[in-house]
């Protein structure tokens, strides 16, 4: 008789491998309870961990399940939820670390862009002062603080025809050619600093 019941349980276990629907699992669990098929009962209970607690408790056969099996099903559900919660927390921590890393990179990029703007301003000031000195315009602008944009305008206006003033073109070329790269760099760095405020 034991061999026959074991074969019956083995057959039901084999059939359970393909079953994932709640009704099939609950029906097989009741059969396992009625015939004391412990391996089958354990297998059925394990399969319930992928189902929702609400679906299990609202199933018409739930009241026929032994209290110990009900408790084991709930424990499996809780373990499954704790595992999912732990995975979600780990994912959140990973995301937060990536966000923090990106924020650090953005802060560094903004700092570098601000420093770059200062360097562009210094270069524009130096070139603008050089042009005004060569054009003998310094005395008129000594008491006037000029902006980077004004220095860039001075560079833009330093054409070949203006460089011939006082024979300057023999010793110093027109600096007009530096205007486009400088102004482009200036506005790109300015855009970066404004983008990440």
Short description:
Residues 71-112 form a coiled coil. It is built from 9 helices and no strands.
Q: Explain this structure to me?
A:
The chain is mostly helical. It folds into 2 domains: 3-65, no CATH class; 108-196, no CATH class. Helix content is 74%, strand content 0%. The chain has 9 helices and no strands. α5 crosses α7, α5 (67-134) runs antiparallel to α9 and α7 runs antiparallel to α9 (179-195). The protein is rod-shaped. The model has no long low-confidence stretch (mean pLDDT 85).
SSE map:
Layout: H1 2-16, H2 22-34, H3 38-47, H4 53-58, H5 67-134, H6 138-141, H7 148-156, H8 160-163, H9 179-195
Order of helices and strands: HHHHHHHHH
Structural class of the secondary structure composition? Answer: mainly alpha
Largest sheet: none
Radius of gyration: 40 Å
Helix content: over 70%
Q: Based on Cα principal axes, name the global outline.
A: rod-shaped
Number of helices: 9
Total count of strands:
0
Please state the average pLDDT score.
85
Q: Termini distance?
A: 80 Å
What's the number of domains?
2
| Beta content | under 5%
Question: In terms of per-residue confidence, which ranges show pLDDT below 50 for 5 or more consecutive residues?
Answer: none
Provide tags for this entry:
197 residues; mainly alpha; 9 helices; rod-shaped; coiled coil
